[in-house]
Amino acid sequence: MTTHHGDGADTSGVDWDERAAAFDEEPDHGLRDPRVRAAWAARLKDWLPGRPCDVLDLGCGTGSLSLLAAEQGHRVTGVDRSPAMVELARQKLAGRHAVFLTGDAARPPVDGERYDAVLVRHVLWTLPEPDRVLRRWRDLLRPGGRLVLVEGVWGTVSPVGIPADRLTALLAPLTARVRVERLSGDPALWGREVDDERYAVVALRD
């Protein structure tokens, strides 16, 4: 997995297996604070379909968002490049309707399966050829399915990330409707005040 911790650093060389044990210590990773957890649960309930459905969580990390989705009645498949992260996610969701696979978020190892929602947080900005990746993710959706992408631009000296207007432009030829939700102004999501660009995009497939 390649994801972002919000410090403006390039994470491409990070050993995520080594980081896995401490990953959940970040407020918006582990969702251990009840207020942070409740904030993400409320957003997820709004972004995902209202009925129980099949959700693919790409770059799932330790499974914190997967767990929220499962608690809302969804069947979850999580994919992460880090075997250590995948093992922690399996432990976190033991006994729930969830499967976790080790693999590349850009090319998920799901053997032709289709999903009602593809959920991806802080992963797309790290991937080369995001237009191709988005097309691949869109093709994993059933008709009427949705992409739920949580992204942003982090850091002030040398910002990294993907601005919302760039992401919506990449999605325009691929999906019927795109909704952008700004997240920077909700400190409950991050466990603190933030002043950089953070947002979610919900894009519906025809």
From TrEMBL:
It comes from the Bacteria. SUPFAM superfamilies: S-adenosyl-L-methionine-dependent methyltransferases (SSF53335). Keywords: Methyltransferase, S-adenosyl-L-methionine, Transferase. The keyword DNA-binding does not apply. Gene3D superfamilies: Vaccinia Virus protein VP39. InterPro entries: Methyltransf_11 (IPR013216), SAM-dependent_MTases_sf (IPR029063). The keyword Endoplasmic reticulum does not apply. Pfam families: Methyltransf_11. One of its GO terms (molecular function) is methyltransferase activity. Residues 56-149 form the Methyltransferase type domain. One of its GO terms (biological process) is methylation. This is Class I SAM-dependent methyltransferase.
